[in-house]
Amino acid sequence: MSRPTIHYSVIVPAYKENGNIRPLVTRIYNALRQYDSPVPADQVEVIIVDDNSRDGSVENVQSLQQEGYNVRIIVRTTERGLSSAVVRGFQEAVGDNMLCMDADLQHPPEYVPSMLAAMSPSATFVLGTRYAKGVEMDKDWPLYRRVISSGARLLALPLTTASDPMSGFFGVRKEAFLKARNLNSQGFKIALDLLIKAHIAPQAIAEVPFSFGVRAEGESKLTGKVMIKYLEQLAELYWYKFSFLIVIFVIVAVIALIWVAQSFLESA
Question: Recorded GO terms, molecular function (predicted)?
Answer without folding.
Answer: dolichyl-phosphate beta-D-mannosyltransferase activity; metal ion binding
